[in-house]
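Q&A log
Question type: sequence-to-structure
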Amino acid sequence: MDVKNENVSRRILEVQRRMADTRADLKLVDTSILHLTLFFIGEVPESMVDTICESLSRVKGSPVEIELRGLGAFPTVSQPRVVFAKIGKGAGELVERAEQASEALSRIGFRMNEQFHPHLTIARVRSRLNMDKLTLFIKSNGDIFIGEALTSRLRLKKSILTPRGPVYETLWEKLD
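Response status: OK
Response body:
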């Protein structure tokens, strides 16, 4: 589900700039490609795409109004590999949607590796450089208000990795 909102993008860019001031070794997510991953499928043969789309078409629901508030990290704030904006309002709907997607995709052989935690990735940590400053930054922004946005409809995305970062192509979008 894409998150396209100028105010939210501007606020995330502001947070990213401040986070970069920690001089931690980060790869910041381009705000033009912000999205919520409900289920990571991984690499699949082209012949499976239609079957995946058919399965996802059974997932109920429309775009979700979300609130982005606070920063967090995976696996933990003290050992971050991914820095994200937390989802407040709308989190329950996203969990429900992810569970539906997981159930639909499990019928055709895909399994979710980890429990779904609603979040919007804003940076990836490349090394331990200035980790103490990054950890302090995340903790001190644990409740920062970033904004509200309406997500897109459910989409199946293809990720193409390039030296400049990922490029996403929408292969399918739920129309109802």
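Response note: Residues 17 and 168 are 24 Å apart (CA to CA).
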